[in-house]
Design a protein that fits this description.
Blueprint: H1 8-12, E1 16-20, E2 24-28, E3 33-36, E4 40-44, E5 49-63, E6 66-79
Antiparallel strand pairs: 1-2, 2-6, 3-4, 4-5, 5-6
């Protein structure tokens, strides 16, 4: 990784996440949605499960390896 000057998350194949306030979470390079309700979404992040908790959660965008979750996000947990 150091020789190629690649970011750690790109080189290791893990998901990249971007939280915008408490209303939107963008996940890139995920490996699928494991569970989905309006109160919780579990996403396979490649080595960890990304567990998103909140109210009125929706899968707004889901294309290929891109995912956007909207709603009132109250917590994000990484479960190994």
């Amino acid at each position: 990784m150091d020789r190629l000057d690649l970011p750690v998350n790109l080189a290791s194949g893990v998901a990249r996440m971007e939280l915008l306030g408490n209303r939107s979470l963008y996940i890139d390079r995920h490996r699928g949605v494991l569970a989905y309700t309006t109160e919780a979404v579990d996403v396979n992040g490649g080595g960890v499960v990304v567990r998103v908790r909140g109210q009125d959660l929706q899968l707004l965008v889901m294309m290929g390896q891109e995912l956007r979750i909207t709603g009132k996000i109250s917590g994000i947990e990484l479960v190994e």
